[in-house]
UniProtKB/TrEMBL annotation:
Residues 14-229 form the Dienelactone hydrolase domain. The keyword Hydrolase applies. This is Dienelactone hydrolase family protein. It comes from Phenylobacterium deserti. InterPro entries: AB_hydrolase_fold, Dienelactn_hydro, Dienelactone_hydrolase-like. GO terms for molecular function: hydrolase activity. Keywords: Hydrolase. Coiled coil: none annotated. The lineage of its organism: Bacteria, Pseudomonadati, Pseudomonadota, Alphaproteobacteria, Caulobacterales. It comes from the Bacteria.
Amino acid sequence: MGERISITTPDGNFDAYVARPAQSPAAAVVVIQEIFGVNQVMRDITDGLAGQGYLAICPDLFWRVEPGVDITDQSEAEWKKAFALMNAFGVDQGVKDIQATIDTIRQDPGCNGKVGAVGFCLGGQLAFLTATRTDADAAVAYYGVGIENRLGEAEGLSRPLMMHIAEEDKFVPKEAQAVIRQALDGKANVQIHTYPGRDHAFARPGGEHYDAADAQAAGERSLAFFQTHLG
């Protein structure tokens, strides 16, 4: 269903997976990867957004470390590689690459000019930073790891942001969740949804903590949010 395009930066080019909707022009959504690269899960999410009428694009944000990463969460060796990639990844440069992705897809003939973003895990933190640092029109963060360390940027949060937090997330402990809520609750442009009993990556199909009902609930909330802010 998808295609590959190249995105140009001052440091070089990187690939992105693109899925196009049946009708265009349409609003675009940048899908921000987990620590497993642009794998089948990310491509399926991208395809699914296209099926909902969005021009969806998933950039290879690990390209500066290792281009073309496509691994799963199904083996210890893959987990070790994923964490090594995450540790080598530069978040600040990654946000700049997201802005380059936004610029590229916004200029695509199939885009109507509106661009949102949705990110998962590491991508959840990047989605938060997309809302504070880029000109994306809206962003959704699923179980973002490390956001509690980035809350100094909350003052610059001018874009609509939705967050999905797993109450039992082993990577985002309750203390971190409390800090996030203290900083962001009450902001008119922020919506936070907490999922009781859920662990990290509850919306990752095939994952250890996947929960179909809450994944569907979060997905429906995200789509409604995009419909509101992207049209």
